[in-house]
């Protein structure tokens, strides 16, 4: 499978959200990454259902929703109704992760689990066969435009090994500080999905950056 590109709407111009989503629609991007932050799990608040519903109206690509919220299990149906195709919850925010993952899948969404930079890969041993995706945070969650954490490469390799020995089909998604410079190495380590916010929306020609990321050779 060729790798996937998911531009993060957090770095879009919210005054011109429909225009920026149209750009992603026309681009070579595969998914639209949507960051929901509650001001409790992370020290920032992004947006909620009214904005998601607006995104859904314009978006022609699957919505890859990343929940940086406590107790995400309370809102799973609502995110399904708001148009999520992929729903990712944080490992650190879920007491009953197995139940939450299966609830997400039972509604027909792909289920993802995200790991903060400090969280090791091995606690996923017993859940890796149940998830469709693991999102490795390559910055501390909460803000776009942060510096990429170099240890991410090792973590991707460890996760790729776990996926292999457990015969899981989980995709490896990397989120935070991804750009056209580090993308090649991330893919070589085993990344399947690259999220990119600032490097796309901060560029003069965002579609060109998406194309470069999509056509990056391993
Ligand atoms: C950070 C979010 C990311 C963010 C990535 O907490 O989860 O998805 O939008 O933005 P960049 O690519 O600018 O680091
Ligand atoms: Zn994200």
Describe, in plain words, how this protein is organized in 3D.
An eight-stranded parallel beta sheet has the order 1-8-7-6-5-4-3-2. The chain starts with a strand and ends with a helix. The protein has a single domain, classed as Alpha-Beta Barrel (TIM Barrel). α5 links the parallel β6 and β7. The chain is globular. With 218 residues, it is of the alpha/beta class. The longest helix is centred in the C-terminal third of the chain and has 14 residues. The site of zinc ion (ZN) has 6 residues, from β2. D-xylitol-5-phosphate binds next to β2, β8 and α7.
Order of helices and strands: EHEHEHEHEEHEHEHH
User: What is the CATH superfamily classification?
Assistant: Aldolase class I
By DSSP, the count of extended strands is 8
Distance between the termini: 12 Å
Strand content: 15-25%
């Amino acid at each position: 499978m060729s790798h996937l590109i998911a531009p993060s709407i957090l770095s879009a111009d919210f005054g011109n959200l429909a225009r920026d989503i149209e750009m992603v629609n026309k681009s070579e991007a595969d998914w639209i990454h949507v960051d929901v932050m509650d001001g409790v799990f992370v020290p920032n608040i992004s947006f909620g259902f009214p904005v998601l519903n607006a995104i859904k109206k314009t978006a022609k690509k699957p919505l890859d929703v990343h929940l940086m919220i406590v107790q995400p299990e309370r809102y799973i149906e609502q995110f399904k109704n708001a148009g999520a195709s992929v729903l990712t919850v944080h490992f650190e925010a879920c007491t009953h992760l197995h139940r939450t993952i299966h609830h997400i899948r039972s509604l027909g969404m792909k289920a993802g689990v995200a790991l903060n930079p400090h969280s090791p890969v091995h606690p996923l041993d017993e859940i890796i066969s149940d998830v469709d995706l693991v999102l490795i945070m390559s910055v501390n969650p909460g803000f776009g435009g942060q510096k990429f954490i170099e240890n991410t490469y090792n973590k991707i390799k460890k996760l790729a090994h776990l996926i292999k020995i457990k015969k899981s089909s989980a995709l490896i998604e990397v989120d935070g500080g991804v750009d056209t410079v580090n993308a090649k190495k991330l893919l070589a380590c085993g990344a399947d999905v690259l999220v990119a916010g600032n490097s796309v929306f901060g560029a003069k020609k965002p579609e060109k950056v998406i194309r470069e990321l999509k056509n990056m050779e391993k």
